[in-house]
Specification:
two-stranded antiparallel ribbon, 67% helix, 9 helices, Four Helix Bundle (Hemerythrin (Met), subunit A), 2 strands, mainly alpha
Length: 265
Amino acid sequence: MDSQKEIDQPRKPPMKGIYVLPNLFTLAALFGGFYSIVMAMNGVFDKAAIGVFCAMVLDSLDGRVARMTNTQSAFGEQMDSLADMVSFGAAPALISYEWALKGLGRWGWIAAFVYCACAALRLARFNVNTSVVDKRYFQGLPSPAAAALVMGFIWWAVETEYPGASLSWWVFGLCLYAGLTMVTNVPFYSFKDFQMRRSVPFTGIVLIALIIAIININPPTVLFALFILYGTSGYGVYIWRKHKGEHTSLISLSTEEPDEEGLHQ
């Protein structure tokens, strides 16, 4: 009789937990953005820029860690987007305003707001288009790269002892360029088809070592130059495809995955 009652009683649904490992990387990236804002408030702009770059590295790891450990979750995706908005949206806008744009009055905060708003729009569009956009490319400049472009310029200028007031309009233009490029349909290579588990030739490891050595010669200058190249590469790809008469839309450029079949129609 008692056993029959136990069968009839509804079972409690299992408690849903949160995966710790990938979310630790996400929280660390969020801390990098928060640290950058605090450093900018204290006038330490080189450390503010470094904080954003650290957040960018950590942001690139959380998704890979989740996939490698099979700990992907909807919670992790939302947490990642919110952390990105702080680290690559609000933080670069506020740092740029504090360092250079404040002296421009309303034009300064308008430029900072345009960048921040475009970062939010970019992240929202990315979240709703993940299932239909070609995985090999980003639709518009990704927010970490946009943040690195703006912060790389500030880091380089601080290291070379340029005052922010003398470069106000340069920062103004860079914020508008980075912000508006985030919400374009220009394709930027995502490097998502690069597999860490895949074997590479010995020369590939040597090349990686050389790149690390070159970056360490002068990190602000080298990183800023690299992100200038990446931040303009999408327009080069777009113009090249347009010139050759190829498909320029990122929707369904690839039909290699079954869930993308027919999206180009």
